[in-house]
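Quick one: sequence plus zinc ion SMILES, need structure tokens.
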Amino acid sequence: MPKEHKFGTTRKYRRVLFLSIVTFGIYYIIYQYWLFQDFEEHHEKAFDAEPRAYPLIANPTTMLIFLFIFPFYPIYVKYTLLYDHIRTSSIQSPENCSMGIKAVLTFVFLGLCTFGIAPLVTESRWQSAFNEHIIAHDYQKEDLPERE
Ligand SMILES: [Zn+2]
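Reply:
Sure thing.
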């Protein structure tokens, strides 16, 4: 089940994968929409704690529409935003996800020849990086702006 934390929501990738298989992929599409909502939620809740971090802003509805027209775009956005957010945040995360371009190349070139395993591993690491970041916020000091 999705778990609510002080600075956002964490999700279990294995459960998402299981529900996606059972629903023939429909759950996975909804999951992509939720992820961008998770971005917005984190941005709203954690902005004060990490004012210098790259903002996690992408309209979930726009991303969902692009998922049907040109799916590489939301994939690129999802990885790029999280990668840059974790890289620039004062909150130390134990791990980061793939860079946007690397994730897209993995999907394109390794997707078929690994029977989808390489993209799924990349996706699982994305969720894990997001979860670790949300949890890291819970026990790290806020990055208060310097007084002038
Ligand atoms: Zn953050």
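Residues 3-139 form one domain. Residues 42, 46, 50, 53, 85, 89, 91, 133, 137 surround zinc ion (CB under 6 Å).
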